[in-house]
């Protein structure tokens, strides 16, 4: 009579149920991406600071942005390579473009609405790391808008919708996967804040709603390009509005 011997380590996540294991893996991916971005960011930013650039300069901000997106992409690609599965990506159909337009409108309206509500309630906004460089050089907003379209949106959607939400969907189903992925997506943006306060809750709520819209768009279209376009257009819209409010154009 043959016997099967388990080679699974005692401390492995396999001792948890599929749902818990999926959440742990998804969270681990995000934590790994953030930690790698810190390491890569330090390696890129420190030479700039020692070279004479201010820590709050636009050059350091953009360098940090590149470090973060590179790290996110590396973690996402490594996970897919190890798991031998891929994300859905195709040229947009007319239906996809309808989702893009609707998604952009929904995210921008939700963001402006929640921010207006927080202002009405007297909640002070929390300063972000972007604020100082932008106030010193508002034109930086236009550069960030361009980078959102070609770098930030593609990479973040690849990691959070394609990889993280895709992994969660296999065990939790689409609704729960969207919720957990959106929460993880919103939580990493806390790292962009100079301080944490009540305003941080508003910011997390805004980004959670945006993430949920992106997640629904991906599930309904099965095309990662759709949330990428929504994400890029959403960021660009807010950056341009901020630029105009600071006297641009």
Succession of helices and strands: HHHHHHHH
Largest sheet: none
Q: Termini, distance in Å?
A: 80 Å
- Total helical segments: 8
- Oligomeric grouping of the chains: single chain
GO molecular function: endopeptidase activity
Keywords: Membrane, Transmembrane, Transmembrane helix
Protein name: CAAX prenyl protease 2/Lysostaphin resistance protein A-like domain-containing protein
Transmembrane segments: 22-53, 59-81, 97-118, 138-160, 172-191, 197-217, 224-246
Explain this structure.
- It is a single chain.
- The longest helix has 33 residues, at 18-50.
- The protein is mainly alpha-helical and 249 residues long.
- It has helices spanning 18-50, 58-83, 94-120, 131-136, 140-172, 174-188, 198-221, 225-245.
- The chain has a domain at 84-246.
- Mean pLDDT is 88; it is low at 1-13.
- The chain is globular, with a radius of gyration of 20 Å.
Structure described in brief:
The chain has 249 residues and is an all-alpha fold. It has eight helices and no strands. Residues 1-13 have low confidence and may be disordered.
Lay out the secondary structure.
Elements: H1 18-50, H2 58-83, H3 94-120, H4 131-136, H5 140-172, H6 174-188, H7 198-221, H8 225-245
Helix pairs in contact: 1-2, 1-5, 1-6, 2-5, 3-7, 3-8, 5-6, 5-8, 6-7, 7-8
Domain CAAX prenyl protease 2/Lysostaphin resistance protein A-like: 141-236
Keywords: Membrane, Transmembrane, Transmembrane helix
GO molecular function, one term: endopeptidase activity
């Amino acid at each position: 009579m043959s016997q099967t011997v388990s080679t699974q380590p005692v401390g492995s996540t396999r001792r948890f149920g599929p749902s818990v294991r999926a959440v742990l893996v998804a969270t681990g991916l995000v934590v790994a991406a953030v930690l790698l971005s810190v390491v890569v960011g330090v390696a890129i930013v420190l030479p700039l600071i020692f070279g004479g650039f201010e820590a709050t300069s636009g050059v350091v901000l953009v360098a940090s942005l590149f470090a973060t997106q590179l790290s996110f992409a590396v973690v996402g690609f490594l996970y897919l390579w190890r798991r031998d599965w891929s994300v859905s990506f195709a040229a947009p159909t007319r239906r996809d473009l309808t989702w893009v337009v609707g998604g952009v409108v929904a995210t921008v309206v939700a963001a402006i609405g929640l921010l207006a509500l927080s202002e009405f309630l007297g909640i002070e906004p929390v300063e972000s790391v972007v604020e100082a460089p932008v106030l010193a050089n508002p034109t930086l907003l236009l550069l960030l808008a361009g980078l959102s379209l070609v770098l930030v949106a593609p990479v973040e959607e690849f990691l959070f919708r394609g990889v993280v939400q895709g992994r969660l969907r296999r065990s939790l189903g689409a609704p729960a996967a969207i919720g957990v992925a959106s929460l993880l997506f919103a939580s990493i943006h806390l790292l962009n804040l100079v301080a944490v306060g009540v305003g941080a809750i508003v910011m997390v709520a805004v980004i959670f709603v945006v993430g949920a819209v992106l997640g629904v768009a991906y599930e309904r279209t099965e095309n990662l390009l759709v949330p990428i376009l929504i994400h890029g257009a959403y960021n660009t819209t807010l950056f341009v509005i901020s630029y105009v409010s600071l006297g641009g154009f």
